[in-house]
Amino acid sequence: MGLSGTVWRLVEVKSMDDALGSIRPDNAEKYTLTFNADGTIAARLDCNRGVGPWRNEIVEPSGGSLEIGPLAVTRALCPPPSIGEALAGQLGDVRAFIIEDGRMHMALAANGGILVWEPVAPQQ
Predict the structure, then answer these.
(1) pLDDT tens across the length of the chain (124 residues)
(2) What is this structure's pTM?
């Protein structure tokens, strides 16, 4: 599946450390990624925005390698609880993705965790 032209919202950040568990954003609409056809990505990171390059190589029908960034991100101070700043850093660590049950799972480098996203329906 190609990512070009798709929009995703964050559902969950899964830690590889069972003691940390997972984090679900208080409002998934605050955290979105738009994969533009020109090779740029637009990120909504709570009250901040980010933009940068992305590229992927499809290795199998449902996934492949994925690189995001570096991102240029605004630096507004978002009210708690915000995971925007942490998420901005994690996006640069994405190495691969797989689409499973309609959700995109992004694997972070060095067993850093999994970012789980669901598609945003195109606006009519």
Answers:
(1) 589 999 999 999 998 877 678 999 999 899 999 999 999 999 999 999 999 999 999 888 889 999 999 999 999 999 988 999 999 999 999 999 999 999 999 999 988 899 999 999 875 4
(2) 0.91
Mention every residue, 6+ apart, whose C-beta is less than 8 A from residue 60. Answer: none
Which fold does the domain 6-118 belong to in CATH?
Lipocalin (2.40.128)
Q: What share of the chain is helix, strand, coil (3-state, %, to 5)?
A: 10, 50, 40
The H or E element containing residue 116 is strand 114-119
Domain layout of the chain by residue ranges: 6-118
